[in-house]
Amino acid sequence: RSIPLPSGIKQELKELTAQKATLRSELSHFLPKSKSKFVLIDDENKDQVEFLEKTAGKGTNPKGTERGHLNDPGDDKRSPNLSGGTYTWWKNKQNLDLAVYRPGVKGRYRIWLSWGSGWGTHTKDALYQLDADGNPASGDDRETIATINQQLFANGEGKVINKPLWSGFQDAGVHDLNPENAIVLRGGSGTAVTADVIVLAADGGGKTLVPPTLNPPVGFKRNVESLSPEKVRFVRFTTEATNNNSEPCIDELELWTTGKDSRNVALDAKLTSSGNYANNPKHKLVHLNDGKYGNERSWISNQKGKGWVQLELPEPATIDRIEWGRDRKGRYQDRLPTKYRIEGALEPGQWRLLANSNDRLPFKGEKSAPATTYDFTGHPEEEARQGREKLARLKEIEKQAASLSNTSKVYAGTFKQPAPTRLMYRGDHLSPRDVVAPEGLNALNAMLRPLNMKPDAPERDRRIAFAKWLTDPKNPLTARVMVNRIWHYHFGRGLVATPSDFGDMGFRPSHPDLLDWLAMEFMENGWSVKHIHRLILNS
């Protein structure tokens, strides 16, 4: 456990926390706006990427924050590492089609390409081609949109260091796309060809070429959708997929108005839904906007992996932020909406998209809070400069606070009440159900008395009860397992050949009487390991 912090350091941490809160508030102006303008397609997305040839393996970005490394933070001129940390590669055959990306979108989009870089064996002339009908077999309807040197970073920057790096994004131009179009990766010269994430950004007509900036992956506690101001009376949150295919759960859905006196107008809203989880007082529709957080005050859909919930405001309001979470207290990590869309309307049924999960990095099971990203492009130069300075100051304060909080550790017992033990639904640790009481193996109840303890029994009582159960002379396992281990380490093989499995899946003892006799000797001599060593070695 950690040694308590001195009062002086506690006060310093308190002041740093206040400074962090102020800076984050001032930086909120630079949060990426949810415009639903991106389509991100990772090479591991089997729904939208087809491999035409057998792959040779995966390249894994090295840990670190250097350019192209796993935690590369990017800057205002290039994106952070959005690859997920890996890329796919093939043994190259010149002019052979290797992979097909299928965006399935209609409209005018700027295409941003990325690949695995850093190796001198990679091709210098991989072709990315736009296929009109999406059928690679009909090669007469293609347009080459980029020829890429995959040894280097985007735009030919960097040098070969023979490490599996992420390239960053290279602009492949603006194109009018239809749902049937596909992007084909074709091999060039060299030994290896790679594929990684691509992003399509809806073309806004601007001249500034801004690399994609996406929001962090969805988190279990709190997610913020930062919007351009939108006037709405109806807001609908539709879940299309969850992290474990269970019914989606939201503990609170908040709609925040614009301006300094921002307020959560969702508290006054009328609620409707596609259907509600039945017969559980913790999960009710009315909990969605009651201002209380946590799993015990949440709404759950009645459909696996999907469902919608709708807020109807008493009167139209202009909002610029939507906040929601699965469990703001952080205890539960199942039922998280990972694919979703949020729509708004002034009149019933006249929906327009406000935000969706396409604006976020793919969810990959992250348990910690995702890092916040800021977008300084599109702001006046002086305002953007001040924003970058504030972000640098925030990072410095966070580093300073982390250093102060890093106290010395001491191994010591704790006297707090243990957390409840729950039955995991179908063995899934993300789906805890009923609380269960401390108990031994039911299979031994005929020989040993059950513990008969209450679910909230103190830690001390639990340990004493289990120790007595474990060392009870009638317990058929403890002494036998121990002496078998000792025999195993002396002779290379136990009397039971599977020392970690005394159950039905293990071997029967080769000399059961000897095993029983040694077990009795062990118990009758005060559980003395030295006695058993001496007995075996002097035999």
UniProtKB/TrEMBL annotation:
Coiled-coil residues: none
Biased composition (Basic and acidic residues): 64-79, 378-387
Gene3D superfamilies: Galactose-binding domain-like
Domain F5/8 type C residue range list: 253-388
SUPFAM superfamilies: Galactose-binding domain-like
Region (Disordered): 53-82, 368-387
Listed name of the protein: F5/8 type C domain-containing protein
